[in-house]
Amino acid sequence: MATIPEIKQTTQGKMDQTIAAFKTTLSKIRTGRANPGILDTVHVDYYGSSVPISQVANVSLLDARTISVQPWEKGLGPKIEKAIRDSDLGLNPASMGDLIRVPMPPMSEERRKEMTKLVRHEGENAKIAIRNLRRDANEHVKKLVKDKTATEDDLKRAEGDVQKATDKHINEIDALVAAKEKEIMEV
C-alpha cells in the first residue's frame, strides 16, 4: 500500500511527464519558422526497414525558413526527398548535389488559425490528463482513509497539496499554449 508522500511524489512525476509530452507535441506543430524537429515524423526506407530521417541524415537549419538534410550515404538523397514530399507536411524539398534543402512555405492566415486551434486542443488534452492524475491521487488517498491507514486531516492536506500541483501544471500548460500561439501568429 502506498503512503501519502509516495502518492504525491508519483502524481507529481506523472504530471511532469505529461508536461514533457505536451512540449514534445508542441515542438512538432508547425510555426512560420523552420524547425528540424518537424521532420521527426518522416520515415525513409533504409535497406528494407523504415527509419526516421534523423537516423540516416544530418538535419539542421540553413536559415530561419530553410531546413537542410545531409544524407550520410550517397544513394539516399532521392529516397529522403520522396519521403519528405510524400509526408503530409506539405513540404517541397529541392536537391542540390548531396544536400537537400527543405524551404518552409509561409503560412496563410487561415492555416495559422488552424494551427492555433490545434495548439489549444492539445493543451486541453494535456489539462485533462493532469486532472485525471489529480483524481487518481485523491482516490488513492481516500482509500487509505477508508482502510484507516490515514486520517481525515491527512486527506484534506493531501488533497490541498495535489490541487496545488495540479494548478501549477495547468498554469504551465496555459503559458506554453500562449507562447506557441504567439509564435504561430508571428509573421
UniProtKB/TrEMBL annotation:
Cellular-component GO terms for this entry: cytosol
Domain spans labelled Ribosome recycling factor: 22-185
Coiled coil: 141-168
UniProt keyword terms in alphabetical order: Coiled coil, Cytoplasm, Protein biosynthesis
SUPFAM superfamilies assigned to the protein according to its UniProt record, in alphabetical order: Ribosome recycling factor, RRF
GO molecular function: ribosomal large subunit binding
Subcellular location(s) per record: Cytoplasm
GO biological process, one term: cytoplasmic translational termination
Broad class of the protein's primary localization: cytoplasm
Similarity section: Belongs to the RRF family.
Purpose: Responsible for the release of ribosomes from messenger RNA at the termination of protein biosynthesis. May increase the efficiency of translation by recycling ribosomes from one round of translation to another.
HAMAP family cross-referenced by the UniProt entry: RRF (MF_00040)
PANTHER family: MITOCHONDRIAL RIBOSOME RECYCLING FACTOR PSEUDO 1 (PTHR20982:SF3), RIBOSOME RECYCLING FACTOR (PTHR20982)
Protein name: Ribosome-recycling factor
Encoding gene, per UniProt annotation: frr
